Amino acid sequence: MSAFGTVFAPEMSLTRYEQGQWSATEFVSSDSLNLHPGAHVLHYSSTCFEGLKAFKHQDGSINIFRMEQNIARLIQSSELLSLPPVDAEQLKQMIVDIVKRYAGDVPLPPGSMYIRPTHIGTEASIGKAAAPSNTSLLYVLLSPVGDYFASGSKPLRLLLADETRCASHMGVVKSGGNYASALQPILKARQSVQADQVLFCPGGDVQETGAANFLLIDGNEIITKSLDSSFLHGITRHSILTLARDRGMTVSERALSVDELLERAQKPGAEAALSGTAAVLTSVGTLIHDGKEYAVGNGEAGPTTNALRQALNDIQWGKAADTHGWLTNVC
Ligand SMILES: Cc1ncc(COP(=O)(O)O)c(C=O)c1O
């Protein structure tokens, strides 16, 4: 099977922002873009993106999960990067139309169609280091995907690092530079301790990994960092916390220190997981800190993690009622 995100639908939907307005949406080939080498994005990183999924249900219908939240986050990222203002209605139509056009290519569960809206500053001006791009491109790429973590249900190994993933006011922005700045710590963690991911814990504050949020499950309680500007406000995180509340669990959104995490993770029955559009909800089996390894609970995937993941998948896959109105039917 091809690696996650390496296969694309042949076309994407695209609009350009010029002279204060967006052009009519076009469907264009997804294999190239014509960009000036001096484009703002290539020098000053005026770029943000989103990741969401469309699912095929047993009746053949195609349904997108929590599209409005992803659009709202792209609008916020664009604002915080001083990119031109995204038109929510147009973007919604761009997503729905391209997914409808390639409805036949949406894989059956556990696969899905990954949707990647992308917004980049295109103005050809290398003099604009301290000024925004007046022009931009917004396009929606599609990529049929299977399971993100090729290891399937194998619990992950996380290295707890006393580092920031990105500038502390930029964590809330889904922008390329944040991922680039996290790469060196992640590569070193893979090499030095065979970690799957780094859990960024600057000053002992448990934040998130390079591409997912972190949740600790202790009995009937689920604990995760409360929202601030330092990390990405995951839509899966919000969905899982909502489903946990539905099940009568206590949801604690608050600061979690490395010390408390290590202490609670070692209790029998403790569970930890990563949440994200790609990761869904993936168990964490081992935490690595200061050269020591700590098994989370018994080191295996826990029953609460599995049940919450199943509850989320059941809604996404049309096997349980969509009681929160999270799905948009496309066709
Ligand atoms: C840095 C980071 N944190 C958290 C998440 C989880 O966000 P979401 O659940 O909206 O996919 C992502 C994206 O998947 C991410 O890239």
TrEMBL record:
Question: Which key words tag this protein in UniProt?
Answer: Aminotransferase, Pyridoxal phosphate, Transferase
The UniProt record lists the EC number as 2.6.1.42
Q: What this chain does, per the record?
A: Acts on leucine, isoleucine and valine.
Enzyme category, top tier: transferase
Under catalytic activity, the entry for this protein gives: L-isoleucine + 2-oxoglutarate = (S)-3-methyl-2-oxopentanoate + L-glutamate; L-leucine + 2-oxoglutarate = 4-methyl-2-oxopentanoate + L-glutamate; L-valine + 2-oxoglutarate = 3-methyl-2-oxobutanoate + L-glutamate
What organism does this protein naturally occur in? Oceanisphaera marina
**Single GO molecular function:** transaminase activity
Database matches in NCBIfam families: ilvE_II, PRK13357.1
Alphabetized Pfam families for the sequence = Aminotran_4
Q: Which residues form a coiled coil?
A: none
- The reply to whether Transferase figures as a keyword in the UniProt entry is yes
Family assignment from sequence similarity:
Belongs to the class-IV pyridoxal-phosphate-dependent aminotransferase family.
Query: Can you name this protein?
Result: Branched-chain-amino-acid aminotransferase
